[in-house]
Specification:
By secondary structure, the chain is α/β, with parallel strands linked by helices. The protein has 3 domains: 3-65 and 300-417, inorganic pyrophosphatase (n-terminal core) (Alpha-Beta Complex); 111-245, Udp-n-acetylmuramoylalanyl-d-glutamate--2,6- Diaminopimelate Ligase, Chain: A, domain 1 (3-Layer(aba) Sandwich), CATH 3.40.1390.20; 423-539, DHHA2 domain (Diaminopimelate Epimerase, Chain A, domain 1). It is 37% helix and 22% strand. It has 21 helices and 24 strands. A 6-stranded parallel sheet has the order 3-2-1-16-17-18. Helix 1 (13-28) packs antiparallel against helix 14. The two termini are 45 Å apart.
Length: 543
């Protein structure tokens, strides 16, 4: 089961690069299942980084809530049904048609009814619809002579458990072409059975026919099988060689593999069915689950990087097993663990700084792709060490990274910030969501998005559309308000657009360019500058 190392929703470069680098670190430190994941689409600048590094994008994981596909057992298949049920410890089994499509379900109860029919109906107890090939497989028998072994037919089982004369008379009450004779070391039964031309003679206890009787069987077209079991066991196994078609239920509950466990638990709990097939989008069988699998479904395992608030985490994080948290933001809320975990939250400029320090402390030199990712995360979140969030640790780690990788940080930073303009490349609704985080402050719920640009020349033509997109964000997520911070990373200047609750808009005390649009000189950090300001503002507002 993978351990997803995953950043926040609408991931930025630090979030993605920290996930990639920390997953690498964890694998090197003995966690082979650590796998980088992303909770949202990757923006243009991060795509540039991954291309430069030659690294595949992390797996997209948008929801980690338990689904029936995640709890399904996939090793179950139809071969010899009862044996597979025993081996898999299930009480039912899916049946597939020749095209591999789900045909029905067969239960252990229905199989037992096939093997042990109503004893009041003697004739039905003798009937076995099967083939000689299937009999050989079930009995582990050796075919001495066999005619049309693959033919499906209804055979009448007779057991030589009386005198030879009495059995011969009884045997002839049944049509020879459908009669199956089971006998041990009894040549006085073998000879009349072969002479009568029965469909097959099954010799128990590995008894062998004489050369004379083998020749007679060949002449009469009588198939001869040698069972290694005694007569009683052989007879029971023959019954279990029946076709399972009568036992297949064609009305049953099945579920798509993407269905959440919580959405089907009630229906499954009230059903008489004991096993539930799980199907993929094409309707092909992916596995099965039983009611007991819903009692304590396997939880996803997560390592959270670059965030610690569940409002920013992948959907279902509250139902997952959180193993670690690695972050550099304010302490939020909601993360609960059943056992002690490693929770590291440091006031540095980048989560990649923390990962880089871990590697240095362990004497690990990051390979070139990981070094590029670490550099990108630091450069992005500290605006190449010019942001007020920058600390001596960030400077030290970036310098160490440059020394061990021989990379030109300044040149890389220039290419990185020139790699993409959100205002130019993204539709308004996408632009306000590409780097958007939700927060809770007391009873207030709000979102703050940030767009970083080399200049703000494109803003004026997009202003109205961005405001409308921000209003839609408030409505869709039922927020009190939302803010969009458009930052000029060259001049270290930001514009702040705020929509939603009028009390909040009126309370913002940055210079107001126009209604709901504010100028923020030397403000470039959402984390260290804007959020503390909003927290103080909200603390003084009535609800």
């Amino acid at each position: 089961m993978p351990v997803y190392v995953i950043g926040h929703k609408n991931p930025d470069t630090d979030s993605i690069c920290a996930a990639i680098a920390y997953a690498h670190f964890l694998r090197e430190q003995g966690m082979p299942d650590a796998q980088a994941a992303a909770c949202g689409e990757i923006n243009a600048r991060t795509q540039f980084v991954l291309s430069e590094a030659g690294v595949e994008p992390p797996q997209l994981v948008m929801d980690v809530r338990p689904t029936v596909g995640k709890i399904a057992r996939r090793e179950v298949a139809l071969f010899t049904v009862y044996q597979r049920m025993r081996a898999s410890r299930v009480r039912a089994m899916p049946v597939l048609d020749r095209a591999g499509r789900l045909h029905g379900l067969v239960s252990l109860t229905r199989l037992v009814e096939l093997v042990m029919p109503d004893q009041a109906v003697d004739a039905s107890a003798r009937l076995v619809e099967t083939s000689l090939d299937r009999l050989c497989a079930v009995l582990d028998a050796r075919a001495v002579h066999v005619v049309e072994p693959g033919r499906e037919e209804e055979l009448i089982v007779t057991v030589a458990a009386m005198s030879a004369e009495g059995f011969t008379r009884r045997m002839k009450e049944f049509p020879a072409a459908r009669t199956l004779v089971v006998a041990g070391d009894r040549p006085t039964v073998h000879a009349p059975a072969i002479a009568y031309g029965v469909r097959a003679l099954i010799l128990t206890g590995s008894y062998e026919l004489s050369a004379e009787l083998r020749a007679a069987a060949l002449s009469q077209g009588v198939s001869v099988l040698m069972s290694p079991h005694d007569t009683a066991t052989t007879t029971l196994l023959i019954r279990s060689a029946k076709r399972i078609t009568p036992a297949i239920a064609r009305e049953f509950l099945s579920y798509p593999e993407t269905m959440l466990v919580e959405h089907c638990a009630h229906e499954v709990g009230n059903a008489r069915q004991v096993l539930f097939p799980v199907l993929d989008e094409a309707g092909a069988l992916r596995g099965v689950f039983s009611k007991s699998d819903l009692v304590n479904p396997r939880r996803a395992k997560l390592v959270l990087v670059d965030h610690n608030e569940l409002t920013q985490a992948v959907t279902g994080a509250d139902q997952a097993e959180i193993l670690e948290v690695l972050d550099h933001h304010r302490l939020g809320g909601g993360v609960i663990s059943r056992e002690p975990i490693r929770f590291i939250n440091e006031p540095v400029g980048s989560t990649c700084t923390i990962v880089c320090r871990f590697m240095r402390q362990c004497g690990m030199t990051p390979p070139a792709p990981i070094a590029t990712c670490l550099m990108a995360g630091m450069v992005a979140d500290t605006l190449n060490l010019t942001s007020p969030t920058t600390t001596p640790t960030d400077r030290e780690m970036l310098a160490w990274l440059a020394s061990v990788s021989s990379m030109d940080v300044a040149a890389f930073a220039t290419r990185f910030f020139a790699a993409g303009s959100t205002l130019e490349a993204s539709a308004p609704d996408e632009a306000v969501r590409v780097d958007c985080k939700e927060y809770g402050e007391g009873s207030w719920r709000f979102a703050v998005a940030q767009i970083e640009e080399l200049d703000l020349n494109r803003f004026a033509s997009r202003q109205v559309a961005l405001r409308e997109a921000l209003l839609r964000l408030v409505q869709e997520r039922e927020l009190d308000f939302a803010a969009l911070m458009i930052t000029d990373i060259t001049l270290h200047f930001s514009l702040l657009m705020v929509v939603g609750d009028a009390r909040v808009v009126d309370a913002v005390d940055y210079p107001e360019r126009e209604t709901g649009l504010f100028e923020m000189e030397s403000v470039v950090s959402r984390k260290k500058q804007l959020l503390p300001h909003l927290a103080r503002l909200l603390a003084g507002l009535p609800r």
